[in-house]
Amino acid sequence: MTVLYGRPGLLGTVLELFAFGGKVGTSADTGFVFDPGRVSARLTRRFPAESIMFTHQSHLLHLLRSEHYTSEAHYRSELRHLFGPAWHPLATVGELARSGDFLTFDLLETPILVRNFDGELRAFLNVCPHRHSRLTDKARGHAEKLRCQYHGWEFNKEGGTGKIPDAKAFRPWDRENACLKRFRLETCGELVFVNLSDTGPALREWLDPVWEAWQSYGAGYRHAATWEADFPCNWKVVLENSLESYHMPEVHPRTLGPFPPEENAWHELSDRFSSFKTIPPRDFAARAQGWFVRRLGAPVTGGYWHRVVHPHVTGASMDAFRMLQCVFPTGPTTCRYRSILFTLRGARRGPLAWALYRVLRSIATRVARQVFAEDGAVYGGAQAGLAASPHAGVIGTREERIGSFQRYVLDTCRGRYELPLAERPAGGAAPPISEVPVGRPEPRA
Predict the structure, then answer these.
(1) Contact indicator for 122, 185 with CB cutoff of 8 Å
(2) Where is the Rieske domain (predicted)?
């Protein structure tokens, strides 16, 4: 689960790591007591009453069947319909600070190179138009020129050729077919996004529900760490896990603890976006977080938010941190999950503020990685169960964001590769996310 708020929560864990010599605390250690009445009063002051609690009051039908998590055909359909038009967060601006800095990625079976050209960031296909070699096999580096590692062809920031060894050997010159393939690149705060499509909405339009919130990834929050891992599961297993808090007591009993009660949870659902909001109880951990935040010169809000932009980008935030996560399919039953963590630096300067920032950065990274690993331990079992399950599946109201996401997948993957829906089980609940049932669409031309 990508949420980092519960009991003891991120800052609670930070404080307990100090207080108990690196041991993550339990309720017995912290004396934690949850007072729903007190929390509910704080909640109604922060969020409008019409958005309180869950959207649905009864369970939902699991819209995806096992083949949607295992099929090569459906995987190809998702690459085309879901990921082709999407914007993908790949890096931070700080990782490409100097002219000549570059990073490379394997993104959706496409090799990508992102480079700083005198302060301008550009993204290209990491393939030379000469004889198809990768321009570089390095994951990151610095070079004065963008030069192919094989025959030394050089390229400028527009992707056009510069110096070519023995250029006369290529007369007459085919300039049109000698350029690098360029991809769209835009930024939101410190986040660098790349789009593999030549058409479609700009980044701001694509991120519209979260644009303002994600501008804070940077500014008073500094990049703390980036990590990723490959998992033996379909990408939707990872994404769906991030959209529900129901698994917290079982998977994260010590790092996150129990899920919040319904009166302390807000869900917002739409076709391409959903969010979860809660106010952690005002216990020792919350007061400690407020102490840290105030001494770093930032306002205290006390809230936790988790947002997703379909299909694959999520952002989590508290006063002390911001974290962006993105899952990339690498095959029908494999994926890569990347986390980009920012921790509060704030406006204050001086030795105390610097020391607090360094402490927060170090331990927040440790805790976030621990939660990441705990979630990773269950993905393989979930995938194996999906491949063998005869059950229709069911989604609880606490998991309703998954229902919204599954509807998005089915509504968007309308093409020759789409699989038919699982049949509604006898006596099962109708899918309440939409009153119109989703049937098998006609193939696109």
Answers:
(1) yes
(2) 87-194
Q: 438 near 414, Cβ under 8 Å?
A: no
Select 95-199's CATH number: 2.40.37.10, 1.10.3720.10, 2.102.10.10, 2.40.50.140: 2.102.10.10
Query: Of 409, 310, 291, which is closest to residue 352 (Cα–Cα)?
Result: 291
The reported pLDDT for the residue numbered 35 is 41
Most confident region among 52-56, 92-96, 264-268, 345-349 by mean pLDDT: 92-96
pLDDT digit string, tens, across residues 149-160: 999 999 999 999
Instruction: Using CB atoms within 10 Å of the CB of residue 14, give its burial: 0 to 12 exposed, 13 to 18 middle, 19+ buried.
Output: buried
Adjacent-strand bridge partners of 411 = none
Tell me the three state secondary structure of residue 369: helix
Cβ atoms < 10 Å from Cβ of 210? 20
Rounded to whole angstroms, the Cα distance separating 272 from 115 reads 30
What separation, in Å, do the N-terminal and C-terminal C-alpha atoms of the chain show? Answer: 40
Rounded to whole angstroms, the maximal C-alpha distance in the chain is 80
Domain boundaries of the chain, sorted by first residue: 9-22+33-59+204-388, 95-199
Q: Residue 228: beta bridge partners?
A: 338
Confidence of residue 302 (pLDDT cuts 50, 70, 90): confident
CA distances from residue 8 to 28, 32, 115, 277, 294 in whole angstroms, order as listed: 11, 8, 41, 17, 20
Cβ atoms 302, 319 nearer than 8 A: yes
How much is the average pLDDT of 91-108? 97
Band of residue 248 on the pLDDT scale cut at 50, 70, 90: very high
pLDDT value at 64 more than 70? yes
Mean pLDDT of the chain: 83
Neighbour-count burial for 218-249, b at 16+ CB within 10 Å, e otherwise: beebbbbbeeeeebebbbbbbbbbbbbbbbbe
Contacts of 210 (CB under 8 A, 6+ apart): 273, 307, 309, 315
Rounded distance, CA 289 to CA 370, Å? 19
| Fold for the domain defined by 9-22+33-59+204-388 | Naphthalene 1,2-dioxygenase Alpha Subunit; Chain A, domain 1 (3.90.380)
Per DSSP, the three-state class of 324 is strand
